[in-house]
Design goal:
Shape: elongated
Largest sheet: none
Order of helices and strands: HHHH
Helix content: over 70%
Strand content: under 5%
Number of domains: 2
Structural class: mainly alpha
Distance between the termini: 45 Å
Number of helices: 4
Radius of gyration: 20 Å
Length: 68
């Protein structure tokens, strides 16, 4: 728990000058970042992401041509 609080409070800067509203926003923002950080257990997911990343030029060309 301390690691998470330290991460949030580090972004706030001067802790004594942080309002409750600013702290609540920082905690909510950090919670959202944690929720988006999903572990990929299956290696095929990671391979698909890499493969799609290597073919971005093809994807953009298809969008330009109207072929989705």
């Amino acid at each position: 728990m301390g690691k998470h609080l330290a991460t949030v409070l580090d972004e706030c800067g001067n802790l004594w000058g942080v309002s409750d509203k600013e702290l609540a926003y920082a905690l909510t923002k950090y919670k959202g970042q944690l929720e988006m950080d999903v572990r990929h257990i299956d290696d095929s997911e990671i391979e698909d992401i890499i493969k799609d990343g290597l073919n971005l030029d093809k994807l953009f060309k298809e969008e330009e041509d109207g072929d989705y």
